[in-house]
Amino acid sequence: MALRWSNVDLDRGLITVTESLEETRTGLRFKAPKNDKHRSVALPAYAVDELRRHRTEQAQQLLRLGVRLSAETLVCAREDGEPKRPLAVTYEFARFVKRLPWLPAVRFHDLRHSHATQLLASGVHPKIAQERLGHSSINVTLDLYSHVTPTMQSDAAERLDLAMRGALADLKKGVQ
């Protein structure tokens, strides 16, 4: 919610998380991320393409209102460029999900968990998942998502078997 175009590098496919947006009793406020650490996250190509499209659309919308898109413009903003309330995004997402009958009921925050689950299930190293999620330690990531791959033990055994068979085959070749 606090991502600004100045923190999006579409040429390199990176975003840098430098702040978050919080709704308080007195209104919206920008603050440092939870662990006070900035982080860069590599984007998949489809996300870069979608962000390029969104930036063009957003610039056109703002120009219709007489506002010029700048580096400080929020990526996820109201039509007038002002910050969206975090709850508004939650409600928008819930309405979107309801329009897709094939999609199970998921919350906006569940996207974060889905991202982590897909990373780990695809064999991405947990340290990379930790960095992408901005967890303060790898233990947080592993504690939350260690259930992701129930076949980890059998996968580990298969990999060990392949490695040992390869090593034994190499030894036999060396002996001959």
Description:
A hairpin with a 2-residue loop joins strand 3 (20-24) and strand 4 (27-31). The chain has a domain at 1-108: Intergrase catalytic core (hpI Integrase, Chain A, Orthogonal Bundle), CATH 1.10.443. It has six helices and five strands; from the N terminus they run E-E-E-E-E-H-H-H-H-H-H. With 176 residues, the chain is mostly helical. The longest helix has 24 residues, at 152-175. 7% of the residues are buried.
CATH superfamily of the domain at 1-108: Intergrase catalytic core
Strand content: 5-15%
Rg for CA atoms = 22 Å
Low-confidence stretches: none
Which whole number gives the mean pLDDT? 90
Q: Could you tell me the number of beta strands?
A: 5
Instruction: Classify the secondary structure makeup into a structural class.
Output: mainly alpha
Widest sheet, order of strands: 1-2-5
Q: What characterizes the major β-sheet? A: 3 strands, antiparallel
Number of helical regions? 6
**What name does CATH use for the topology of the domain at 1-108?**
hpI Integrase, Chain A
Fraction of helical residues: 40-55%
Write down the CATH class of the domain at 1-108: Mainly Alpha
Short characterization:
By secondary structure, the protein is mainly alpha-helical.
